[in-house]
Amino acid sequence: MPVLLLMSMCLFASIVLTSFKAETLRTDQVAVTVRQSLVEEMAALKQQSQLLAETLELLSQEQVSPEQAQEAFYRVKQAYKRVEFMAEYLDPELAKKINGAPLPKVLVEEANYQTLHFQKPSVRTFPPEGLQVLEELLFAEEVEPGMAKKAVVLAHGLQDAVSLMAGSLYQQPLSDKQVLESLREQLVRVMAMGITGFDAPAAGREIAHAAVALQPVLIAAQQYERATGGKARTYSSKAAQHLQQAVLYLQQHPTFGTFDRLYFTRELADPAYAALTALQQELLPTAASVHKPVNDHASSLFSADYLQAAYFAKQDRKEQKPELVELGKVLFFDPVLSANNERSCASCHVPSKAFTDGQARSIAFDFKGTVQRNSPTLLNSVFSNAYFWDSRAVYLQDQVPDVVVKSDELHGNYEEVVQKLQQSPEYRKLFKRAFSSPADNGLNTNTINRAIAAYVQSLVALNSPFDQYMRRETEQLGASAKRGYNLFMGKAACGTCHFAPTFNGTVPPRYLESETEVLGVTASADFAHPQLDEDLGRAGIIPADAWKHSFKTPTVRNAALTAPYMHNGAFTSLAEVVDFYDAGGGAGLGLDVPNQTLPDSPLKLTTQEKQDLIAFMESLTDTATVFEVPKRLPRFSKNTGLNGRPVGGRY
């Protein structure tokens, strides 16, 4: 009996191990199949890019028509869309050379200029390249002189980039992890960029290209459905079903202006994303990591935890201790950080006004005029890789000292601030609780900055009526707001710079870069007599012509609460903001803005469409999330004159 029992156990173990190995091999086989298909599609892209270069050579010799050149371009664009999901995943920088935005690339060569203030930044500017630049040339309403020759040069550069990517792919094995992550990224890319026309500046066919871009995602989901069993098969089947419906919907509704982006995203693409997320966690279960912006466990583009605030922190890339956040909140509302003990961070960032102050430009220290720029909201500001209007700070923590020491803001001195805080037993206790590790070294400049940054990091408000609707927590969203979302992500082109789900300039699908834009913002809302605002923006920090008048793209979440608008507070209402964009920005109003990144052609929005856009932005208001103000501030045992200071200061 013992022998028979042992043999039975061995046989059972053998069967279990064999079936586990078979299951592993079956799923690994999907990655192998995807790679084989990708190699074939990359070869087709190489061929089409070569044919485009040859066609453009003939165009420069007037041996083919512009229409023939345009068709050759379409074939290349379509071929790229078939490999986009993996090309962008494996080598996003090289992918930019193939299909990057048609904007100059500015390279800062002296990266330490911010720490070595005597050293000026050195910059080099490279002209734009790739499919989008070609598109603007080939589909321009007016053909500029020498267009064909420029296009030939760009086409040969495109060929080189495609060949480089193809050669790299031939040496690249693929894993299930890479395949599944690339599929999910592609879904986000289509939802947040593809259907907005982000990478189609002139030629059209955006919706048709989105359908092509999702085809390999659908095929891969179907392959996982065949290769897996159990829950994995259930999830892959759901993903394939939603993706099939999404592709079909794109194919049946190819008209850009009337495409229902809200329905497509909420009912088809986002559920497919949820299924792919569940599939990846079933096949490759991992703990959530804050070492990337996107939470791999989030089931929706509009999940409250889709982006991880902890990733964007500098020194504390983790969920912050409640004691640290509480300390930061107290410091944020305490005027003791300022030179006159009357002004605090909350002076210009008032909770009831979505952490703005309602001024065009905030009142300067000691009421001596105003500061240079408008006070932006701090709600959801953590979801960024650049801070201040001119993007001069990379992390929240780096933003704090600039405000504390700046003469027209808090006008503080860190040595004096530390000395003052040390005189409060309550503050010493708060710092000790927040920084319990000896390595943190108690109360100092660094810990002050980290605490305030931790509090700002906690100011996340992603529970607006629109979010609740997209997460299917409610069926209530006004018809005007629904139309407004479709306009925002479509005809009005807002979504090409204000990316979902944060609706700021942090770029999907990886959210690793925050854009600035040149809009030609006017000095006032007098559009009949426009004058360009003189603020150089980003170019005031880094002297690059491409960045003259370039400013960070802020979030439009809670915009209903944050008037006035733009870096200079020139527009007092959302209606004025919409009118400005509708006109084509400063260049559309007739101003000389040669580097404007906003298209200068009028949007031709109707009165109803403008109202719908505003209704959508108003639906992004989150009043459900409450941010409490400290009931009181820490007391001082010796310097008792400070004990009468009010929470938030006297400004």
From TrEMBL:
What InterPro entries does the record point to? Answer: Cyt_c-like_dom, Cyt_c-like_dom_sf, Cytochrome_c_Peroxidase/MauG, Di-haem_cyt_c_peroxidsae, Imelysin_sf
Principal cellular location given in the protein's record: other
From the UniProt annotation, give the residues forming the signal peptide.
1-21
Pfam families attached here? Answer: CCP_MauG
Say yes or no: keyword Oxidoreductase present. yes
Q: What is this protein called?
A: Cytochrome-c peroxidase
Any idea where this protein resides? Answer: Cell envelope
Has the keyword Nucleotide-binding been applied to this entry?
Answer: no
Origin species:
Pontibacter toksunensis
